[in-house]
Design a protein that fits this description.
By secondary structure, the chain is of the alpha/beta class. It has helices at 37-46, 64-67, 82-90, 167-178, 197-211, and strands spanning 2-6, 9-13, 21-24, 27-29, 56-58, 77-81, 112-114, 119-120, 123-127, 136-140, 145-149, 152-153, 156-157, 184-187. β4, α1 (37-46) and β5 (56-58) form a beta-alpha-beta unit. α4 (167-178) packs antiparallel against α5. Bound molecules: zinc ion.
């Protein structure tokens, strides 16, 4: 738990059930459950920023452990893939799996619906359905960094047995990621991969296909 710096990107880990939260400039990628706001406050303070200064929250998908904290960022625009946007806007407890976390989800207006190929602050949106219909990865081509949400972790793939999950789509998404030039993988949970990201994706894809 705590704070890890990866170049000028900060990885904030609030608890075992919160998603990883990444801070880059005034953008947050995923916001955690929202259960650990005191910890979030103190980490942001350590980073010489605060909730008010965050101008943009990009959600990699609409599961509760990634979106539950959106409400804290009151000055931020909310961005999410168009296929998952309705879950956020409705505060959909079922499709966000909020019940699993015993969480409450307030409806929140989506300011920008993302789709494949969009560019947001130098990050390219890669639509990678499988874990959820609107799952995305965010790709920094210049720095060869992939924010991978729950599509790929350091040691495997996101589960496909939740509402909207689709193993075949996940396989196709991994094939798509395989074509990118990736050094670092910054996933939605667990430890980041700091080098040889492509090799890791090859390995994970191979394991995934064998398990099918
Ligand atoms: Zn998820």
């Amino acid at each position: 738990m705590g704070l890890l710096k990866i170049g000028d990107i900060s990885l904030i880990q609030l608890s075992d059930i919160d998603s990883n939260i990444y801070l880059t400039d005034d953008t947050i990628i995923d916001s955690g459950t929202g259960f650990n706001s005191m910890r979030l406050h103190s980490v942001l303070r350590m980073l010489n920023t605060d909730l008010e200064k965050i101008k943009q929250v990009i959600n990699t998908h609409a599961h509760f452990d990634h979106i539950g904290g959106n409400g804290y960022f009151y000055n931020a625009k909310i961005l999410i893939h168009e296929n998952d946007a309705a879950i956020l806007e409705a505060g959909d407890l079922e499709r966000s799996n909020a019940g699993f976390f015993e969480g409450k989800l307030k409806p929140r207006k989506v300011d920008r619906n993302l789709k494949e190929g969009d560019i947001v602050s130098n990050l390219k949106v890669i639509h990678t359905p499988g874990h959820s219909p609107g799952s995305i990865c965010l790709y920094d081509e210049k720095r060869k960094i992939l924010f991978s949400g729950d599509t790929v972790f350091s040691d495997g793939v996101g589960r496909t047995d939740l509402a909207g999950g689709d193993p075949q789509a996940l396989g196709e998404s991994l094939e798509k990621l395989r074509k990118l030039n990736i050094e670092k993988i910054l996933p939605g949970h667990g430890e980041p991969v700091l080098k040889l990201g492509n090799k890791r994706i090859e390995f994970i894809l191979k394991e995934f296909l064998q398990s099918e």
